[in-house]
Amino acid sequence: xxxxxxxxxxxxxxxxxxxxxxxxxxxxxxxxxxxxxxxxxxxxxxxxxxxxxxxxxxxxxxxxxxxxxxxxxxxxxxxxxxxxxxxxxxxxxxxxxxxxxxxxxxxxxxxxxxxxxxxxxxxxxxxxxxxxxxxxxxxxxxxxxxxxxxxxxxxxxxxxxxxxxxxxxxxxxxxxxxxxxxxxxxxxxxxxxxxxxxxxxxxxxxxxxxxxxxxxxxxxxxxxxxxxxxxxxxxxxxxxxxxxxxxxxxxxxxxxxxxxxxxxxxxxxxxxxxxxxxxxxxxxxxxxxxxxxxxxxxxxxxx
Amino acid sequence: xxxxxxxxxxxxxxxxxxxxxxxxxxxxxxxxxxxxxxxxxxxxxxxxxxxxxxxxxxxxxxxxxxxxxxxxxxxxxxxxxxxxxxxxxxxxxxxxxxxxxxxxxxxxxxxxxxxxxxxxxxxxxxxxxxxxxxxxxxxxxxxxxxxxxxxxxxxxxxxxxxxxxxxxxxxxxxxxxxxxxxxxxxxxxxxxxxxxxxxxxxxxxxxxxxxxxxxxxxxxxxxxxxxxxxxxxxxxxxxxxxxxxxxxxxxxxxxxxxxxxxxxxxxxxxxxxxxxxxxxxxxxxxxxxxxxxxxxxxxxxxxxxxxxxxxxxxxxxxxxxxxxxxxxxxxxxxxxxxxxxxxxxxxxxxxxxxxxxxxxxxxxxxxxxx
Lengths: 303, 370
What we know:
The complex is a heterodimer of chains A (303) and B (370).
Chain A: H1 2-13, H2 25-57, H3 61-64, H4 77-84, H5 88-119, H6 125-134, H7 140-152, H8 167-171, H9 178-188, H10 193-201, H11 206-217, H12 219-235, H13 238-243, H14 252-263, H15 267-302
Chain B: H1 3-35, E1 37-40, E2 42-46, H2 50-56, H3 59-84, H4 90-118, H5 121-124, H6 126-153, H7 159-171, H8 174-184, H9 192-199, H10 214-219, H11 232-259, H12 262-270, H13 275-304, H14 307-312, H15 324-334, H16 338-365
Antiparallel strand pairs in B: 1-2
Helix pairs in contact in B: 1-16, 3-4, 6-11, 6-13, 7-11, 11-13, 13-16, 15-16
């Protein structure tokens, strides 16, 4: 009460500009207690499935069906079994190669295209860019079926006949991304034109300017695009599910799914596989969460 | 513009544009082509609009159904236009939009009944399922994330850590987390969802295996047809959707909160507004563009959603969890009806284009900070 009276006094006396009215200390404490309670409850709900995943992955098969929250003796052997016998080592390596190929391809095509859309004048530039942007709202369900037929080799003759169960079949359709082009173009457009004029006087062409001047300046946005591409490729499920029928190139997500449907009740092994599947993403996220959430916030708001 | 410069430009965009043309644009046209053919694994020839007729049943019904939604949009635009114009007749201003809403509802219901009488029930049933999924998940995740973002914005200690925790479900691979939710909502008495129910004194449920409506099972409210609401299985899937997307919405809301000028709050505080009034009369209205954006993105997202629903669907839940996307996959991959599956995909595309149009229409007219 005294506090409120005092701040009213300051307003009436028109002394220094009033900052936030602190309010009575007791209700302030209560308000903070409630806010923390909500946050902590939210955090528990957000983390509980991860806790359960980790905990169940260390249980015996019998324990997963009881009311236990923690294993009595952690069964680290579950991970060994999942890695070797359930073939997760194979799936993991496949995912690493698929993700690396996709990300490398996507970065290359996107950097080149974004540079051209931002800094080279050519006929139809805006029109082509607009058409590319409009494809972003097309749901994957529409393009999926024709793409499947293309990759199976039915429409255009593909080198090697069919691309089902091949690395190129899984990765090539994802080697260009309108979203990546869009993000990079925003940044490239802001680079001062004086730099290009200076480089041109020195005899540089666009490719040299891009590699020697633009790329070193654009580490931050390229890194953001890299994170998005990596997470997208690693988490992808539907497309590799369609185009893999054998283990040869089956990535981790599809492997995890087939294991869960075929092995049925082996919950602890499935959980170990799930932990293996999320670890690279969790590590990447914790290392880069600042860039990532900022990227989401800016691109999300711009729509 | 010299020729060399132009050629360089085309050369630079060539790889990306070729790939997007082949895997992003060509398939749209080809999907149209396929949808007009009888195509089961291999092409068996042109059938015209037969696939569409099979899905929708009745052309007049489909037309009325679609027109209903267009009228609904018109009602919004009329309301928006009239409420700006203070000169307009108050009866007209209030009455006309409601009249249009009533007409649109009649049109939707009539169209729907006609379609149901003759169309493919497996396809048509996916529309209310997707609708329940959208209506069940989007408002809940918006409210929760608005509250969380508002609290986090109060310069609270540990803000970064909380934001990181809330966001984690959104980044982690859906297949892995959806499989975890499958065990959480399994019909076992010892599953985590059932442990919670027994803890608060209720009976364990069959969750993902339960096709009966949520309202009937939990509260004994028996309603018929569309009003019966989502099944228990769909509610479990909705819970997963909310869990995943709250973090994303929180981050966007936080960015939106950061865009509200501090001076507005300071002015209101000097006028003696309390915390609730600040929230109600400044934060909520100034955030409304962000809220609109997130709700439309959320609804469009539910029509595109596939992975987690696919992983969490159980045969015993029958059609009650099959959204349009899952139906397309099932028709394509399991039933190998390529032509019919692309027909459903084109209809889905129509719905998404309409929603995107609504989104741009509403955003085009609203100034930021509207």
